[in-house]
Amino acid sequence: MTSEIVSVGTELLLGDIVNSDAQFISRKLADLGIDIYYQTVVGDNQNRLKNCLKTAFSRSDIVITTGGLGPTEDDLTKETGCSVLGKKLINDSRALEDMKEFFKVSGRQMSENNLKQALVPEGGKVLYNENGTAPGIIAEENGKILIMLPGPPNELKPMFEKYVVPFLKSKQEYILVSRLLRVVKLGESMTEYMIRDLIDAQSNPTIATYAKDFEVVVKVTAKAKNIDEGNKIIEPVAKEIKKRFGHDLYAEGDTNIIEYTCKKLLEKKITVAAAESCTGGMVSKSFTDMPGISEIFIEGAVTYCNDAKMRRLGVKKETLDKFTAVSAQTAAEMAEGIAKTAGTDIGLSTTGIAGPGGGTAEKPVGLVYIGIYIKGKTITKELHLNGNRDKIRKRAVNSLFDALRRELEKENIF
Amino acid sequence: MTSEIVSVGTELLLGDIVNSDAQFISRKLADLGIDIYYQTVVGDNQNRLKNCLKTAFSRSDIVITTGGLGPTEDDLTKETGCSVLGKKLINDSRALEDMKEFFKVSGRQMSENNLKQALVPEGGKVLYNENGTAPGIIAEENGKILIMLPGPPNELKPMFEKYVVPFLKSKQEYILVSRLLRVVKLGESMTEYMIRDLIDAQSNPTIATYAKDFEVVVKVTAKAKNIDEGNKIIEPVAKEIKKRFGHDLYAEGDTNIIEYTCKKLLEKKITVAAAESCTGGMVSKSFTDMPGISEIFIEGAVTYCNDAKMRRLGVKKETLDKFTAVSAQTAAEMAEGIAKTAGTDIGLSTTGIAGPGGGTAEKPVGLVYIGIYIKGKTITKELHLNGNRDKIRKRAVNSLFDALRRELEKENIF
């Protein structure tokens, strides 16, 4: 089965919004193993939309539209889609009741225009909308499938999960089962190189690598009759991949190095404090992104100038004079200083040159030292990071969390 | 002139990335006053790409492609585009030199494959790439224009600004001149309501409102023969709009409330320190996003638990006991505490409930207090913010910067 997406909305053509719906649906179709060859964006114009839908049906089995199901005169997707497919529109009583209820609960007045949202194609499947007024629709005719979904992502996504995924699965003989294995530190080409033979040798499961901001995800995907069978196909391959990457492979599933490390610290009730120079609050922010982290994240200090490093963290003047603020020695004293004054198990620190200015031949932009104080000893690392100011700062934060994770694995704490 | 975008890349069809290039180009075309009726995404497949380009040229004057200009066998855009347009490919010596230089500087080995990136259509304009190896291309034939750009946004965006914008302007009889007026605190509908009569009355300039994360941008756009004429058309309308919004309109142009406030503080050399609870480092991060801010941003403290608030900032135990951590009184003592210990002109603070847990009937999720200590006095504000944890934290940060900006305007410091 081949598919394509037709996104309807002038706001997409004007660049007012990015087409995140198309990305969401595309990823879901890929997960289901359904080929998708085209995405098209067209404005709220009946003629152009009609031509797009005709072209789409001439080359694909499934056409998924987004947007244009609302109550205004600009909303033409349902009428146009049904006319291209040769379907008559009739009133759906439940869609009408749902809509009346929605307006009652939200305390808003329902206008006459809204009534057209309860029109559905004869014989079609109505996808009731729990997060808005316009229902989605699935219509079939002569082996062609038209799926029409509302544009707002908070309406489209739950509707897709609840109705469209099971519907498309019912049309598929096989399902796809995937596992994500997360690798840090190695780039994408090195990651791929280390499992090249496995990638080349496999057809089921397939193995693919995806570069993310700070890590590489190895995705192992099996074609199977059900989830259990899929997992059985994946297991030996996943085991071999894990063996090859050792500690560079830190977790399975949908996570990232920061979230993973925070969760582990919470689980083990290990307290932390952070002293930041070049990352200027990003380490603290990363911790406090997680609800409930106050149980173990005790304090952060952003000591952006030397004076604050001495006053707040007890970094020695001699250390700063002799080695400068961007040095392993300063990173070490910062990590110790914050752990001692905050009374935590672990103290973390960053100090470096995020740029664009401030670099020298000896200490160039991208040079960052990180420090970890843990159980009476202090580890520091020298990093050489690429990118602009924002990238360098983000990479420093991720490197710090990864270094902490490795240290705790070494100590058998994780 | 009508235009459309053809984005080439299987990673878009798989949903691995969102089509931010299409959004960027669409917005630029809208700014230039060039109509765009379609965006299409197609994979790295020669036949399908060829058909897409033929369709595109049959209905539009300008076709802009993104992606597929790289060195691999999958990269087919240039060959396919030139064949559809009937253009021969020849070697461009400067593109070749640039590429050799790029590999020399980055210390990487140039493979044979890379040579094909120096091929350009005869008579075409080469858009040299300062941020990568693949040059962009503009080719014209029989009144049709083909613009081919590399996919990576950090290569595409500067290339578009440097080459494509001037090229497209040269094809237009009129240019569009825009001015952005930035309004905070009022929502989009209130902003629009306050200038409804102006919006309805105008045809040149046009007035439109755009909702951003924390502010509304009023865009005044004039159609004119040149920039001076455009500015003359805009001036009286912009003046009237400014009068209506007073202090809620804080700046003109491409900025945001955080950047604007930081720049003003830097200009006036006013020193600041921040004590954060619920925003957990985001205020410090916002300051340190700006290079050179260390001149005035002295220190940040993330005091996530009560103990740290007392120990680090000198918040009184009685205050915490009587009013709790989420109170105007605590916010005031935090702001005073950080300014005094860091020795700065200004002390800022945040304390609140970012959720999802931790809310009560009396102190619900979204309740945030901010504090500003300045010139011996302390101001606090009670905020009631909507959204998820991330949104609430971001809104708290933006509200704090806006409150600070207003305070400094009141004191005639800004």
How would you sum up this structure, described in words?
Two copies of one chain form a homodimer. The first copy, chain A, has 414 residues and is of the alpha/beta class. Helix content of chain A is 43%, strand content 26%. Chain A folds into three domains: 170 residues, Molybdenum Cofactor Biosythetic Enzyme, Chain A; 78 residues, 2-Layer Sandwich (Alpha-Beta Plaits); 154 residues, CinA-like (Maf protein), CATH 3.90.950. Chain A contains 15 helices and 17 strands. In chain A, β10 and β11 form a beta hairpin. The longest helix of chain A is centred in the C-terminal third of the chain and has 22 residues. Chain A is elongated. The two termini of chain A are 45 Å apart. The mean pLDDT of chain A is 93. Chains A and B meet through α2, β2, α3, α11 and β14 of A and α2, β2, α3, α11 and β14 of B. β14 of chain A pairs antiparallel with β14 of chain B.
Oligomer: homodimer
Number of H/I helices of chain A: 15
Shape of chain A: elongated
Which structural class do you get from the secondary structure elements of chain A? alpha/beta
Sheet of most strands of chain A: 6 strands, mixed
Beta strand % of chain A: 25-35%
As for the number of domains of chain A, it is 3
**Spatial strand arrangement across the major sheet of chain A:** 2-1-3-8-7-6
Helical content of chain A stands at 40-55%
